[in-house]
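I am still getting used to C-alpha cells and would like to learn alongside you. To get us started, please write out a protein record for me. Start from the sequence, derive the C-alpha cells from it, and show both lines together. Once you have written the record down, we can walk along the chain together:
***
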Amino acid sequence: MNLVRISSEPNHNTTVANLMNHALPSDPTFHDIRRHCHGEVPLVGRLEPWMEQLLRHPRLPELVAEHGSPLNVISSNPMRDNVQELNEIAASRGLDFRVFFARKSNKCLHFVDTANALNIGVDVASENELRQSFDRGTDSSSLICTAAIKDESLLRLCLDKNVCVAIDNRDELEVTGELARSSGHTAKIALRLGGFVHQRQKLPTRFGFDVERDIDLASQLSDYPVRVEGIHFHLDGYDADQRVSGIVAAMDWVKALRSHGHLPTFIDMGGGFPISYLNDGENWERFWDELRSALRGQREPLTYRGHGLGLVNFKDDVIGKPNSYPYFQSLTRADWLKKILDTRINGETISKLLKDSNLQLRCEPGRSLMDGCGLTLARVEYRKQNADGEWLVGLSMNRTQCRTSSDDFLVDPILIPSGGKRDPITGYLVGSYCTESELLTLRKLHFPSGVRRGDLVAFPNTAGYLMHFLESRSHQFPLAENLTFEQCTEYFSR
C-alpha cells in the first residue's frame, strides 16, 4: 500500500490531570474518552491530538470494518517534532550531530519518506530494509547497516551501493575484506564496540568487538581494503551515564585508529533514548507496589492467574525484576540527551570533547522517534466467562501485534463502545491464537460501562516496535493493514 504524506500539524501532548491514588473512571480527573476501560491500578497513556480526533470519530467502526482488525494508524508529525527536539539540543551546544531512524522499529515506508524529507539518516538491519530505503530515494551517505547477522548478499549490496557497515566481529571483517578485494571496492565500515566498563563493572553484551580485549584491531586494519568511517555501539537499557562511558571509550578508540592512519569522523551511540508512555509516574510506582502485595497474597491478583511480570514470591519475599519496558520515565529524549552532552569528564563536557576531536555524534533512535506516531485498533468479537468465572474479552488480533519483549503492554487500552446499555464487568483481553497463553493484556481490566461484540479497543502509542517487531501471521491470519491518519480523514470525508 502506498502511504500518502501527512500535512504538517503541531504536536502537543494531550493535557490530562494526574490521577489520585484511588481514582476511578467516574472521577472528573479521567478524560472522558478513557472512562470505559481502566486497569485495576489505572495506567493512563499519553495521547496525541490526532489520536483523540481519530478515536472520537463516529465512523471509526466503518473504517475498521473495511480495512480489517487489527488496524494500525500512523502519523509522521510527532516524528518531525521528536527529531527537531533532539537537533535543537545538539545545535545549542554547537555539536555536529545527526539522527538516524532505526528502521526496524516500524516497517511503514512512510517513515522512511519522512526521514528523507527531514534529511536524517536511516539505520537498516536487513537486506530488504536496505533495498526498500533505496527504492524510497535514501542516499547511500544517509544509510548505515547494523544488521545483527550479515550474509554475503547483504554485505555485497552494501559494497556495491557504498553503504557504511557496522562491523560486529572478525568473521564479518574477513568476509567484508574478501568481497571488497574481489570486487575492487573499498568498504566503508564502522567498528562496533561492546564490553564497556562502567563504574568498574563490565557491561555484558553479545554485540561488538570487546573494547579492551580487541584494541589491537586498530593496528591490523591496514591489511584490509576498508575505510574506517567511525565507531558504533549500542547499549542495552536506558542509562545515560552508561552512554557517557561508551562515548569516552569510543574516543579512546578513535585516537588509536588515528594513530594508525585511519580517519574516523563519527561516534554512533545507537538508540535506547527513553520515552514515557504514561501521564502519571505515581500510579506507575503504585502498580508495582500493588503487584508485589498481590504476589505476597496480601490482596486480590492484579494479573491473570497471578502472573508476576518478572517478579516471583519466594518464601514471602518478592524477588526478580520487572520484565517490562519502563512505561513511565521522568528523563526522556531531549533531557536525556542533554544530560549526556553536559556530563563533564576531566572538566570538559562530552559535547566539547567531541567538538575538539572533530567528531560527529550520531544516534539511532527507533522508539523515541516513533513516540506519538501510531495506535492499534481491534474489534471485540466476544465476551465470555472461563472455567474460573473470569470474564474474557476476545479481540480480532493476536498478541504479537502489540508486544515486544515485555511480558505485558502496561498502558490502559481505550474502549470505544458501539452503543447500548451493558452491565459492568472486570476481565482480560484475549487474542486469536489457539493457546492458553494468548492474552493481549495480563493486567486485570475494568469495564464500568460493560463491553460487547462490535466495540473497538484502541492501544495507544504502538508505532515504536509494538506494531511490527514481533508481528506474525500464524494460523495464516493476514497481517494488519497500516493507514496514515490522513488516509483515515479522507475516508471519513467521503
